[in-house]
Amino acid sequence: MRSRPLALGGLAVGAVLALVAGSRAWWRASGTGVSVSFSGTEASAGLAQALALVVLAGALLGLVLRSRGRRVLGVLLALAGVGVVVLGVTRPRPASQAVQSRVLEVSLADQFALVGTPWPYVYAAAGLVVLAAAVLMAARAGRWPTRAARFERAGVPAARTAPAVSDDPATLWRSMDAGVDPTVEQDPPAGPPDGAGAQEVPGRVTMGPRAAARTDEPT
């Protein structure tokens, strides 16, 4: 099914893109001789990174769950994708006290301007990828094959072709003493060809065609 690699791959790509975008500078405080930046994780108090990690963990979990679990997981990851989009669009600003303390660490300037960067919108785009992949998982997960089903299908031919082995230990020992492998099917013993030699019947002896021909020859 193409929907499976698309969904799981989309979740993984969206999660990695969100992690990268969340670690980049979302805001820069610039002033006289000073410039400090705040990443999306810092500006959102860690929420940007947490949402990306949730999506990445969900993509890995989708590899082992069954169809019903994948549907539920798809709904939860869709909500996480919405959260990523909302967080990227709203672009939370860092607290003013945090900005002032960061500026004072590198300069004594008290005048600065807080300027945003495009990285929050990249983060929001990653959320759209996650949302689309999660919706695809919730809608198509019931058609994806499970690992258990693959193993069951692979085991049926082997079960049909396996030779029958006796469970009686005494029978196994006797077979091995006689030089016979009990795990290998033995061909039935071949009988004498039809019409060759004498055939014993209770009470009389019946001669085969070849033996009868010999008795008719003159001595």
Structure overview:
It is elongated, with a radius of gyration of 40 Å. Helix 3 packs antiparallel against helix 4 (67-90). The longest helix has 24 residues, at 67-90. By secondary structure, it is mostly helical. It is 59% helix and 11% strand. It has 9 helices and 5 strands; from the N terminus they run αββααααβαααββα. It has a domain at 3-146: Butyryl-CoA Dehydrogenase, subunit A, domain 3, CATH 1.20.140. A 3-stranded antiparallel beta sheet has the order 2-1-3. The protein has a two-stranded antiparallel sheet with strand order 4-5. It comes from Microlunatus flavus.
Number of helices: 9
The amount of beta strand, in percent, is 5-15%
Biggest sheet statistics: 3 strands, antiparallel
Named at the architecture level, the CATH assignment of the domain at 3-146 is: Up-down Bundle
**Low-confidence spans:** 158-164
Let me know the number of strands. 5
So what's the oligomer here? Answer: single chain
| Range of helix content | 55-70%
Principal-axis shape = elongated
Mean pLDDT: 77
* Lateral arrangement of strands in the main beta sheet: 2-1-3
Broad structural category: mainly alpha
* Gyration radius over CA: 40 Å
**N-to-C SSE series?**
HEEHHHHEHHHEEH
CATH top level label of the domain at 3-146: Mainly Alpha
> CATH topology of the domain at 3-146, which one?
Butyryl-CoA Dehydrogenase, subunit A, domain 3
Calculate the terminal CA-CA distance, rounded to whole Å: 86 Å
